[in-house]
Amino acid sequence: MSLLLLSFLLIIPILLLLRRKRKxxxxxxxxxxxxxxxxxxxxxxxxxxxxxxxxxxxxxxxKYGPISKLSLFGKPTVLIHGQAANKxxxxxxxxxxxxxQTQSIKMILxxxxxxxxxxxxxxxxxxxxxxFLKPESLKRYVGKMDEEVRKHLEMHWQGKQQIKVLPLMKTxxxxxxxxxxxxxxxxxxxxxxxxxxxxxxxxxxxxxINVPFTRYNRSLRASARIQNILKEIVQKKKIELKxxxxxxxxDLISFLLGMxxxxxxxxxxxxxxxxxxxLVMVAGHDTSAVLITFIIRLLxxxxxxxxxxxxxxxxxxxxxxxxxxxxWEDLSKMKYxxxxxxxxxxxxxxxxxxxxxxxxxxxxxxxxxxxGWQVSETLVCVFLxx
Length: 386
Fold this sequence. Notes:
Layout: H1 2-22, H2 41-49, H3 53-64, E1 67-72, E2 75-80, H4 83-90, E3 97-99, H5 103-109, H6 119-133, H7 135-138, H8 142-156, H9 165-182, H10 188-201, H11 215-242, H12 252-257, H13 270-301, H14 303-318, H15 328-332, H16 335-347, E4 353-358, E5 362-364, E6 367-369, E7 374-378, E8 382-385
């Protein structure tokens, strides 16, 4: 009897194992994960730098269909394509999707930036940033931006027979960012800032392998240098605000330092200020530079549109004194110019995509996406990262 019982006990695990094997597994999309860690990251990065990312995505869709698996930036990935996928992602997937970026972006910008925060922390930091960045607040900075544009044109455009637009637009947007966000004027500190910033953003989309001489490693070191510069700026502005030698409205850093809650406590910590200043820098730099570049290309290739924009600008200039700065009221008169800018954004979106995370287990179109997988939407597809 004991021998029969022992035999039965030994057979139970085997029966359970066989039953588990017969149970159908969750459906996994077709495709290959490629080389561990690297996967298809290098191919996508090459396509993005060559401005052929849409073609790269379309080739995968042609090969595997609208849903496929691959590996990007050190993580297994699911690519989902189509209007239904974009609607699902942009609507939040029924609260199934939360904010989260790739490891490289998180480490370069810092874990206290707005894209990484959730719940009360997200609301608190967003509430601190939005008042300064909304159009009503930006009205007072139109003259400062106009001054930067005038200086830029004098230095880099006037008298030149040939120019490269995109690099110059990146320089222009960076100078406006330095003036508007930090109050850092032209000089040695701004030049150091620019060199480190350009090196930092090169590794935003990269395989997160932190070894010497990699793009990711160089970006991390550049990010650390930027944070040290920001520390110096913050300490200087703290002293100026304490001595009433500066206004809390003169730039973003001063504004954030001056924000306190009901108990008189600073709303954002210094670490949060550093990380979110880097976020605002990145968010406003390449996107603006790319958009302005495409607008200039459009005006160069479409004489009728160029003539209409020029006429509108000349009408506004007639009402200004020589050298007088633009105002918010002048900008409100640029209705045709604004429509040209909006149409350019529609035709040539300056952002390839962003990243989120599955907050719960998700079933989509017959496939299973486990909780914790990262989600990235692009203009032509949606990427999902575990």
